[in-house]
Specification:
Elements (H helix, E strand, L loop, with lengths): L5 E8 L2 E8 L11 H4 L15 H10 L8 E4 L6 H8 L3 E6 L4 H11 L7 E3 L12 E7 L7 H12 E11 L5 H10 L3 E7 L11 E8 L1 H5 L1
Parallel strand pairs: 3-4, 3-6, 4-5, 6-7
Antiparallel strand pairs: 1-2, 7-9, 8-9
């Protein structure tokens, strides 16, 4: 027995139904060998990867119509991997990543559950350089700005793993940490735009959620 319980959820993204195995609730925890603890994941944080969060659904919906042509895409903090699964179904060149030791098996299970090929996966700590990961044309993430210090940390990660001409797409539930991130990316030549988005059926306009898009065109990258 894995030491935790799961459920299957059905969610419709881009007009297609996805079956997703998730943790049954926020009380689940299993770290018998202390692997998660050694990575800095507390017992309170352990279950967070295994939920279908509104920000993750927003990112997945955005990826259902995102221009993927000729682009290598990296999802950071993938959790259950919904956005990566949507991209994989569309034939995108996508790599999923997370720090949580259970993200990879959940991603693999969910790919098989939906009749999709396996999504390439790398365990990635945002503050530890991983040159073997390479560079990408697009980096995506949902609710990755959940701590104030993540702006500089993530900007550095983007700098290490993005090509000169690149895009970033982030779904943010309105935690208030996006402005420092936007400023850091502006220093790197990125132009920003945003679309307000609901974070659930009870969220009324003006919505607190945002779909943030950053782009660095070729002329800026070469300057």
């Amino acid at each position: 027995m894995p030491g935790y319980t799961t459920i299957q959820q059905l969610i419709r993204i881009g007009g297609i139904d996805y079956r997703i195995r998730a943790l049954s609730d926020l009380q689940q925890f299993s770290d018998p060998d202390g692997h998660a603890a050694r990575l800095g994941i507390s017992s309170a944080q352990w279950c967070l990867f295994g939920q279908l969060w509104p920000a993750g659904q927003l990112l997945a919906e955005a990826m259902s119509s995102f221009d993927i042509g000729g682009k290598r895409i990296l999802e950071i903090g993938c959790g259950l991997g919904l956005a990566s699964l949507v991209l994989k179904r569309r034939g995108a060149d996508v790599v999923a990543s997370d720090i949580h030791p259970n993200a990879e098996p959940f991603l693999a299970y969910n790919a098989a559950l939906n009749g999709l090929p396996a999504v390439p996966y790398r365990q990635l700590q945002w503050d530890v350089p991983l040159p073997a990961l390479g560079r990408f044309d697009v980096i995506i993430g949902s609710d990755i700005l959940y701590e104030r210090g993540h702006a500089l940390l993530l900007a550095s990660l983007m700098d290490r793993h993005l090509n000169p001409t690149a895009e970033i797409v982030v779904s943010d539930p309105g935690r208030g940490n996006s402005n420092p991130f936007t400023r850091e990316l502006a220093r790197m030549g990125f132009q920003a735009s945003e679309v307000r988005a609901a974070m659930g059926p009870s969220d009324l306009a003006p919505f607190r959620g945002r779909l943030l898009h950053y782009s660095r065109p070729a002329a800026t990258a070469a300057a």
